[in-house]
Amino acid sequence: MDRNKTDRKKFDKEKIGVWCKKTLAIFLVSMVILTFLSRVMDAVTVAKVQTGLAGQGVVVYEFTGDGTYTADDMVYISLPEGMKVGKVEKQPGQEVKAGEGVLSLQMESLTEEKEALELELEKARILLEQERLSSSPIPRVTQETLALQAVEADQKALELGKQDLLEAKDEYAVKTADLKQEYQRKLGRSREEVKEDAKRTYKSARRSYETARISRDSAVKRAEREVSDKQKKLDKLIEKDEPEEDIADAELELARAEEDLEEIKEEQDVLVEEARARMYAAEEDYEDVDYGSEEAKEELRKNYETAVEAEEDKLKEAERKVNSLEEALYQSMQKLENARVSDAGTMAEEQAQKEASRLRQRSMELDIREIEKKLEKINGLIGQEGMIFALTDGIIVDSELKDGELISQGKQIKMACGALLLKARINKEDAKLIKPGLKMTVKNPGEQKGIEAEIGMVNQMTGSDEAEITAVMQEGQGVLGGNAGFKIRMESGPYPTVIPIEALREDSTGYFCLAAEPKKTILGEELTAVRIHLEVLEMSSTSAAVSGAISPETKLIISGNKTVGEGDRVRVVTQ
C-alpha cells in the first residue's frame, strides 16, 4: 500500500513537471509573437525621419531665374524716303562691321530722283531770280500779311534746323564711337606706330591747310566776281539813265554782294587759320613722340576727352540753334497776334512790296537749300552705287524692308552696338541683397557650362513687386533677343551654428527645431522628438544661422514620412 502511494506521488510530480514545461513554452512563444507584433506595430505607427547635423559654416543664398538678352546701345541708320530697295544685304540677327554695306538702293530710282531734284532746283532758282528782278507793287500789304510770311519762313527755318539737329545727333553717335575705338586702339600701340600715325596726321593736316587756302582763294574770287558783275550792272543802268527804282535795286544788290564778300573773307580766313593751327599741332606731335610714359597716356586721354567735348559742343550748338529758331518762331507768332490786333493801316506800297519780296526770297532760299541738301545726299548715294553702309560695328536688329520695296517716311535700319545685357526680374525682397558688381552664372539654352557675368545695375523702381537686374555679358556671349537662365550665389560671414533650412520650424511661440534623442522605456531605449528653442541670426532658402542648445552631434529632424510633433517616437532612416 505504501509502495502504491509512493508510485502515485512520483507520477503526479512528473505530470506537474510536464505541465510546467508546456506552460513555459507557451509563454515564451507568446512573448515572441507579441514582440514581433509590437515591432510590426512600431513599423506602422512610429514616424520614419531623416536627420541632419548642425555645424560651423555660412548661410548660402541662391537666386535663380530667366532673363532676356538686350542691346547696350542702339544706332539708327536713316534711309531716303521714296527710294526703292535693291537688295537687303544684311538680315536681322547678322553681325556687321563699320563701313560694311547693309542695304542697296535701286540705281534707277536714284537717277530719277536726281533728275527730279535738279529740275526742281532749277525752277526754284528761276523763281528766286524772278522775284529779285520783279518790281511789281503789291497793293495794301498789311502787317498781318508780312507777319504770316515771317511765321512761314521761320517755320521752314525751324524744320531745317531740326533736320540739322537730327543729322548732328547721327554724326555725334558715329564720331564718338570712332573716337572711343581709336582711343582704345592707341592705348596699345607701339612707339613706331604712334610715330607713323603722327606723321600721317601731320601730312593730312598739311593737305587740309593747303586745301583750305585754295578754297578760300576760290570762294573769295567768286564773291569778287559777283561784286564786279553787280557793279557793271549798276554802271549800265546809270549809263542808260534807267528808272531810279531799278538803280536803287541794283545798288542794293551791289551792297549785299559786297557784304557777302566780306563775310566770305572772314569765314574763309577763320577756316584757314583753324587748318593752320591743326597743321602746327600735328607737326609738334610728330616731332615730339614720347609713347609709353604716363604723361603720353594722360595726354592721349585728354585729347580723347577734348575731341568728345568738341563733338558734344557741335551737338549743343545744333540744339542751341534749334532753340533760337523756336524762339524766333515764337516771336513771329507774337508779332502776328499783335499785327492782327493793332494793325491800323498799311505800309507804303513800295516798302510793303520790298519787305514781302525779301521774305519770299528768304523762303525761296531756304527751299533751295533744302533741295540742294537732298540732291547732295542723292549724289552721294549714286557715288556709292546705291549702297548704304553701317556706321559702326553691331548687329542688325530690324529694317522692316524687303527687296524691291518702296521706302516710306521715317524708315530706319536699327543696329545693336556694344556688349549684350541680360535683363531679368527677381523678387524685390531678394533684390535688396544683390549689389552691383556681384557675379552671376548665366547658362544659355543647350549649353552645359555656365558663363560668368557681372551685375551692373539693380533697379527697384519698376512699378511692380519685382525688381530688374542687369548683367553685362562678355563680348560674343549671348544672342540678341534670346533667353538664358541665371544663378546668383551669395554667402554670409561664418557662424558657429548653421542648420539646414528644413530643420527650422516656427509656431506662435517662435523658432525651434526637433531633435531625435534617446529615451528609456519598458521596452528599452527609444528615440523621441525633443523640442529645442532657437534664435535665428540669419537665414536663406537653404540654411539658417541660429543660437540655441544644439551641438554638432545633435540629430536634427529635417523630414519624415508623417508629421512629427514634440514627444513623438521616431525612427531614423537613411535617405
Describe the structure.
This protein starts with a helix and ends with a strand. The protein has three domains: 1-31; 47-60 and 494-572, Beta Barrel (conserved putative lor/sdh protein from methanococcus maripaludis s2 fold), CATH 2.40.420; 76-389, no CATH class. The chain is built from eight helices and 20 strands. It has 575 residues and is an alpha+beta fold.
Residues in β-strands, percent: 25-35%
**Spans of at least 5 consecutive residues with low confidence:** none
Per the principal axes of the C-alpha atoms, what is the gross shape? elongated
* Structural category: alpha+beta
Reading the helices and strands in chain order gives HEEEEEEHHHHHHEEEHEEEEEEEEEEE
Helix content: 40-55%
Main sheet specs: 9 strands, mixed
CA-based gyration radius: 46 Å
**Overall pLDDT level:** 79
- Quickly count the helices: 8
How many discrete domains?
3
Distance between the termini: 77 Å
- Care to count the β-strands? 20
Structure, briefly:
The protein has 575 residues and is of the alpha+beta class. It folds into 3 domains: 1-31; 47-60 and 494-572, conserved putative lor/sdh protein from methanococcus maripaludis s2 fold (Beta Barrel), CATH 2.40.420; 76-389, no CATH class.
